[in-house]
Specification:
Blueprint: H1 4-16, H2 31-39, H3 41-52, H4 66-77, E1 82-86, E2 93-97, H5 120-148
Antiparallel strand pairs: 1-2
Helix pairs in contact: 1-5
Length: 151
């Protein structure tokens, strides 16, 4: 079984790029990227907290379609020019495009809903109680990654 803190850490990691401002025009020394991360740190953490507080579980119709709508908001806040909900016979999808002027295009598939836990109420209660510790640990992991990769 996945540990709850590991689950939250994975969620933060997946969401990390969506919560940063556009930084594709940064110089080779990454000084511009570092400055933007520092400048918008608190806002990025707040976006992640808000996302975690909105559990979206397709199998239980929990926060449907709010999960897709919040994903669209995160994408637009991150600089995507187009982000829209795509209605299906089941739960909606999200389609987004970002033209950063790069010579190549990349495709990404990302799920905005999560797998349900057997005792969701207990999971979210524990998550709220451990929120500060979890965020501090994620900050440490991000700092370590940046340090190791010379960002």
């Amino acid at each position: 079984m996945i540990r709850k803190t590991s689950f939250i850490a994975a969620l933060f990691g997946a969401a990390f790029l969506l919560c940063l401002p556009p930084a594709w025009a940064a110089g080779a020394d990454y000084a511009d990227v570092k400055a933007q991360i520092a400048k918008q740190h608190d806002d990025g953490v707040k976006r992640l907290q808000d996302w975690i507080k909105l559990p979206s579980i397709a199998a239980e119709d929990l926060n449907y379609p709010q999960g897709a709508d919040y994903m669209i908001k995160l994408l637009k806040d991150a600089g995507f020019q187009r982000a829209e909900r795509v209605e299906t016979e089941g739960k909606p999808g999200v389609f987004a495009t970002l033209d950063a002027g790069a010579p190549k295009t990349i495709g990404l598939y990302f799920m905005y809903d999560v797998k349900q836990f057997p005792d969701l109420k207990a999971f979210w209660q524990e998550s709220k109680e451990n929120e500060v510790k979890t965020i501090e640990r994620l900050k440490e992991l991000i700092r370590e990654h940046v340090r190791k990769n010379n960002f």
